Structures are given as C-alpha cells and as structure tokens.
Amino acid sequence: MLSRSSVCRGAQRALRRQCAQPVQRRGLAAPASGSFQYQTGDAKGVKFASRDLAGPTTTLALVSRAGTRYQLLPGLTEGLEKFAFRGTERRSALRIVRESELLGAELTSYHTRENLVIGAKFLRDDLPYYVELLSEVAAQTKYAPHIFHEEVLPLIQMSHKTFLANTKAMAISSAHSLAFHRGLGSPVSPASSTPYTKYLDTDYIEYFSKFAYAKPNFAVVANGAEHSELSKWVNEFFGNVPAQAPENLLEAVRDKQTKYYGGEERIAHGSGNSMVLAFPGSSSFTGGFYKPEVAVLASLLGGQSSIKWSSGFSLLAKVASGAGTSVETKSAIYSDAGLLYVSINGAAQNVAKTAMDAVKIIHNIAGGQISKEDIKKAKATAKFRELEFGQDINAGLELTGSGLVHGSKAYQLDETAKAIDGVTDDQVKAAAKSLLENKASVSAVGDLFVLPYAEDLGLKV
Amino acid sequence: MSQPSVAKFVMKRPWLNSWMKPLANWYTNAAGYRQLGLRADDLIPEESEKVLLALKRLPPKEAYDRVFRMRRAFQCSISHQLLPKEEQTKPEDDIPYLTPIIEEIEAEIKEREDLEAMVVKKRTARS
Q1: Mean pLDDT by 10 residues, chain B (127 residues)
Q2: Does residue A133 sit in the same domain as residue A217?
Q3: Which residue, A252, A280, A300, sits at the end of a domain?
Q4: In a domain, B52, yes or no
Q5: Is residue A21 pLDDT above 50, yes or no?
Q6: Is the CB of residue A278 less than 8 Å from the CB of residue A340?
C-alpha cells in the first residue's frame, strides 16, 4: 500500500513535468498552435468557415466543387470562372470594379482541377459588402450573350493560346489525361478550340452555374473575419442561391472513383521541350489512398533547391544537366487519387539526358542505393512543404472550402505532418519500386526527334 | 441613338392617347416603310458607335432577318414597286427590336460617365 503523501508527491512532480513540457516540445513540426483551425458553421444550408487572424485585412472566398474535373461539357468551368464579377442583376461589371477600387480591394477568380474559387481581399470593415457581392455573383450573375462574346470569349481564347505556348503546361496536362482519362484528366485550360467553338454557350454556362452555386456544392471561407460576423452576413445574403442542383448530373460524375490508366503521348512543338514522367501517387489525407511516402519520395527526387547558393540535396538537382534545364518533382494530390510527376524543361538534348538519369535514380532508390541521410533530409523538406502549404492563406482557403464541401472536416494538416514523420526508409524504397512496376504516364512535348520514348527510358507504359 | 419620341408622354394620358392614336396610325402608314416590309427600328441611322455596337449584339436570327428586310426593301425601291399586301409589315409585327439594346448601351455609357464624375468622400467613421 502506498502512502498517501508519496502518491501526492509523485503526482505533483508528474504534473510539474507535464506543464513544463509543451514549451520545450514545440518545434518546427508542431502546428498545434491553432492557427490552422477554422471554425465552421452552417447558415440555412450554406457551409462556411472562418478563422480570426489578427490583422486589418480579410480574405474571403467562395469555393465551389466545379473544377474541370466536374464540368459537364468541356470549357464550362473556364467560362463560369470568367463570368465571375461580370455584372449581376443588381449592378454592372463596371460598378463592381469601381466600387472595389474605391474600397481598395482585390478580386480574384481561378479554377483548379477540382475547385472553382471566387474570392476577394479587402479591409476588415468591408466584410458585409463582399459577402453580398459573392452571393450576387453566385445567384444573380447575368449570363448575357454579348458579355460572353465581348469579354469572356477573348479571355478564354487567350488562356488557350497561353496554354499552347507553354510546353510544360501541355506536358503536365497530357500526363494527367493519360493517367486519369476523363474527369481528373480533362485539361485545366482549353487545349483546343473545340470547347468554345462547339460547346460553350451562355445558356450552358448558366445551367452549369446552377450546379456550381447550389448550396450543397460550395462553401464560403474567410480568413481574418470574426466568426459571428461572417455567420450573420452569410445568413442574410445567401438566402437566394438555389438549395439543390436542378438534376443530379454532378453526383453521378462525382461519385465515380478515379482510376489510373497510364500510357504515352508525344506532341510535336516548335518552341521548347518538356517531358513529364508521371506515376500513380497519393490521394489527399481524407481520400482513402493516402500514402505519406509519396510526398517524401517527391522531395527526395526534388530538383528545385529551397536554399540559396546551392543546388540542394535532392537527387535530380544533381543530375539536371546543362544551364537552363529545370527539373521539378511534384506530388499532385486530389480528393481520391494523386499523381507523382517529374517534369523536365529545357533544351532537347538536356531534357532527354535528364529523363534517362531520373529513371536511373528511381532504380537506385528502389534498389536501396540511397543514404539514410538523404531520406532524413527529404522527410524534413516534405514536412516543411506540407505545413507551409497549409499555412499559405490562398491554398488554405481552397483546401478548407473543398474539405467542407466534401462533407469531411477541414484539411488535416497536423495528421499529415505526423504521417510524414512516420515514414520509414523501407517504405520509400518500396514506393520507388512500385513506380517502376506500375504503368507510367509519359508525355513528351517538343523536338520529338531527340526526346526519348518511354521504352528507351525503361518505363512500362 | 434611339429615336426621339413623345410616345411615353402621350401614352400616360388616356384622353390624349385615344385622340392621338388614329393620327399616329395614319402617319406610320403614310411613312411607307411598312409597305416595303421594313420595321420602324430598321430606319434608325446606323452611323453611330452606339447603334453599331447594338447591331453587333443582336441575336444571329434577328440580324439575319434585318438584313433580309433591308435587301428586300432595296429591291422594291429600285424596281418602284410595293410588296404584295400579305408580305407587308403588319402593325403587330412592327416591334422595337433594336431600341431596347440601344437604350441598354446608353444606360451603360451614362453609368460610366456618372462614375467618372463622382466625387469621393472619405469615410468618417470606421466601425
């Protein structure tokens, strides 16, 4: 039987130790400071989230699950994005612009493969004005044919041209379409003129807007706004958006599990050379196919240095041959699938040589010829990237919004960081081995006489 | 520009309207454009920025019909003939199809001018 006083003393000591610990324990990887935590709420069916960062400005965004993955016809997402802030039933485009200029605000709209984001940055006091503006954009935009022809279409044509001039974007887009075919594989910006010559039309865009801006399909996210304020204004202004999409077309597209296919595509291009070697990657943390070792492998292959005056520790940075040749490894993460890709840019000879070396390096990692030190560095970089990305306001808004729309919680930053910490060396090697065993998606854009085939690289397609 | 008109003024006053209506009907008929198959809005002078823009904004079908009516009218005019009765514009078909677009453009221009001439006052209290 323990004496009472001894238990007490032990308990006191334990308590003291516990109290003292958190301060010491907090290092780079402890994002538990609560800065990433969004408060969430529901206002008459509209989901919203906010976090009150101290500061004089607010970033507000409407995140809709209407990225190119979910578009019903090619180019609809692009059209809808370009129609944002183009004049509503209540005020003209000019008025929106002038008023925002007077308030000193910034309006943005962009789309990714999965989300359409319409947002604004402004001074804290102007929250009601912008919540109202976003609700107007969602519910009352006028999809007038003359606005489409005079303002929207030239922008779409421009993004088409920019896309065609950028070999890297073309290669990445082509790799995505090889990997996922439809859905996630559909190009982010129009890859040909068919979307706007054949499919795009104000009626279709308006119809699609009823899907994109239906209450279950979007969330309003604010950074630097009081939760009670946001809740009040969302309640007041978002009453008139449609409660349901007109048909459940979108659900059919959405519930389909993305499948990985793989293959090879070669596109001749006169100005620039790019190659993308893509492999099945990791889905987002909530997606069910989450593999933290893919993130580590991506930063181990790397290519871009994060440190000044040094090519960095990453393996590809060392082999990137020739000036002006850039290599980059990315783990593109989507809600239910992912793509790990190495993109190489530069002169044709260098691109070909670097691609050969990249495959050789993957072979080396799979074969275990890799130092523990390098994997440790890669883990640290991967964790830092993950946390930093989550802290970035714009990325955070989109992640949180899409997390809300998908019905799950906000992006699980703490847990992804923890998962990366738990990756072992063997897991990384196994991941590299599985890259070589699975079918790859290889895309070459540029001088096809020089750029190698996947077969020459020794990849399965 | 849209055509100057006292129609609104007249139509607001029923007594004046009932008095003017037969006169107006006689006048439009006597103007002779309906006998050539045209509509009143086809007669708006094209040589101004606003009307040119409005013509660009016409839906394709309307634009095609407008050109058709004009060519038919030219043809009639050259050959010194009127259209047969059943092809002439009926009063109920003589609708303003271009005027609303021109008015919209005028409103846009006016809004722009108003915004340019705006005097900005600084907010006094920040809540």
Answers
A1: 75 88 90 93 92 94 95 95 92 92 93 90 68
A2: yes
A3: A252
A4: yes
A5: no
A6: yes
Interchain proximity A95–B120, CB inside 8 Å: no
The count of structural domains within chain B is 1
DSSP alpha helix (H) spans, A115-248: 127-140, 145-147, 153-165, 167-180, 194, 202-212, 227-237
Mean of the per-residue pLDDT values for chain B? 90
- Residues of chain A in contact with residue B112, where contact means CB-CB under 8 angstroms, are 94
Asked if residue B4 belongs to a domain, the reply is no
Domain that holds residue B96: 32-115
Asked if the Cβ–Cβ distance from A102 to B120 is below 8 Å, we say yes
Domain-terminating residue out of A209, A229, A252: A252
Min distance A85 CA to chain B CA atoms (Å)? 16
CATH of the domain at B101: 1.10.1090.10
Closest CB from B108, B115, B127 relative to A98: B115
Q: Give the pTM.
A: 0.83
- How many distinct structural domains can be found in chain A? 2
The interface pTM score, or ipTM, of the predicted complex is: 0.78
* Structural domain containing residue A58: 4-252
- Give me the pLDDT at residue A28, please: 42
Q: Quick one: which H or E segment has residue A442?
A: strand A441-446
A207: helix, strand or coil: helix
CB–CB contact A94 B126 (8 Å)? no
DSSP one-letter string for chain B: -PPP--HHHHHH-HHHHHHHHHHHHHHHHHH-TGGGT--GGGGS---SHHHHHHHHHS-HHHHHHHHHHHHHHHHHHHTT----GGGSPPGGG---SSHHHHHHHHHHHHHHHHHHTPPP---S---
Classify residue B20: in a domain, yes or no: no
Q: Are residues A130 and A175 in the same domain?
A: yes
Average per-residue pLDDT in chain A? 84
Chain A partners of B120 at a C-beta cutoff of 8 Å? 102
Q: Is residue A145 less than 8 Å (CB to CB) from chain B?
A: yes
The enclosing domain of A207 has a CATH number of 3.30.830.10
Q: Are residues A171 and A217 in the same domain?
A: yes
Number of CB pairs < 8 Å for A and B?
Answer: 16
User: Is B123 contained in some domain?
Assistant: no
Q: Please indicate whether, in this complex, the C-beta atoms of B115 and A94 are within 8 angstroms of each other.
A: yes
For A208-240, the pLDDT digits (tens) are 999 899 988 899 999 888 899 999 999 999 988
- What is the structure's pLDDT at A438? 87
